[in-house]
Specification:
By secondary structure, the chain is of the alpha+beta class. It contains 3 helices and 15 strands. The protein has a 5-stranded antiparallel β-sheet, covered by helices on one side. It has a 5-stranded antiparallel β-sheet with strand order 3-6-13-9-10, covered by helices on one side. Strands 4-5-14-8-11 form a 5-stranded antiparallel β-sheet, with helices on one face. It is elongated and about 75 Å long.
Length: 303
């Protein structure tokens, strides 16, 4: 049985102006996230391509002989390691449920699952990397990117969940925070100096706002955790978990904008295939709540 809505629930809906959120707002948010992904990785990839080209001009990569049994076994073993890691599944640590609503002592609100929206974006740049993701309004995000075994592949898996917010007064200072539970795993295998490789992952808390249907956009993000591994000629990997990775984003807001308050996780891989380089990146996340603090900014009165 669904419990009756209390005074705090009704007040929270009023403060969010929830019924006035345009239906197409989530589509605009997804489009903006897709543009951010494309711009970010294109800039990084161009810098890396230049670096690899210059490095190989001063040092010829050392490659093992095709008829060396020891080298052949080592190469096969590294491929098997990549396949083993690619099959593993990781789960975010479980967290206790929290109570939402207006917190006394100020205009602070805590949103708990189910959140307003959740979505995933697989962003394929080259080849056929394995890109798997899930996003739940219940507070769970999972993102997984693994490079293809045999050919060059580049791809990103982006996931996001959040709530809408339409301030009823302004200007104001909006502070958004979250403490998700987090598990991650990444690895890179690169045999040669010119075997480009990259494993990237991040978890962020952010605010996205847009004015009207086609107006300007604004936003702010804070990184809760991130890695970016690009070392060649090495085998590298890492894994870990944390019951909480706090992050806080802040933005000046006003009633002419509609906002989303979100938690996002993304993974990205780049590799040339085997023998050469392979990469993987996995994140699993549980978000028990998203908290906002809304502080109106006093406007000086002219005499």
């Amino acid at each position: 049985m669904r419990k009756a809505r209390g005074t705090k629930d009704v007040a929270l809906d009023f403060l969010r102006d929830r019924n006035k959120v345009p239906d197409e707002f989530i589509r605009r948010r997804i489009a903006a996230a897709r543009r951010e992904i494309a711009a970010r990785y294109e800039q990084k990839s161009e810098i890396k391509r230049q670096a690899v080209k210059l490095f190989t001009q001063i040092q010829e990569p050392i490659r093992p002989s095709n008829d060396d049994p020891k080298a052949a076994r080592a190469i096969t073993g590294l491929l098997d390691l990549h396949k083993k890691l690619a099959k593993q599944k990781i789960l975010a640590p479980s967290v206790a449920s929290e109570l939402g609503g207006i917190i006394s002592g100020g205009f602070t609100a805590k949103f708990t699952p189910p959140f307003d929206y959740a979505y995933t974006i697989p962003f394929l740049t080259a080849g056929q990397p394995s890109l798997i993701g899930s996003a739940s309004k219940g507070g769970e995000l999972s993102t997984r990117a693994v490079s293809d075994f045999t050919t060059r592949s580049v791809g990103t898996m982006y996931t996001e969940l959040g709530v809408f917010f339409h301030p009823f007064v302004g200007p104001a200072r909006l502070t958004v925070s979250a403490n998700p539970a987090y598990t991650r795993q990444w690895w890179t295998n690169s045999l040669f100096a010119d075997s480009a490789v990259r494993s990237f992952g991040s978890v962020v808390v952010g605010i996205f706002g847009q004015q009207g249907r086609i107006g300007p956009i604004t936003g702010a993000v804070d990184v809760a955790d991130q890695w970016d591994e690009t070392t060649t000629q090495e085998v590298r990997f890492d894994f870990g978990s944390s019951p909480t990775i706090p992050a806080t984003a802040q933005l000046e807001v006003d009633p002419s904008f509609t906002y989303s308050l979100f938690v996002a996780a993304q993974t990205h891989v780049e590799a040339v295939g085997w023998p050469g380089s392979l990469a993987g990146a996995i994140i699993s996340l549980t978000v028990p709540s998203i908290t906002l603090q809304f502080d109106p900014i006093p406007v000086a009165t002219q005499n």
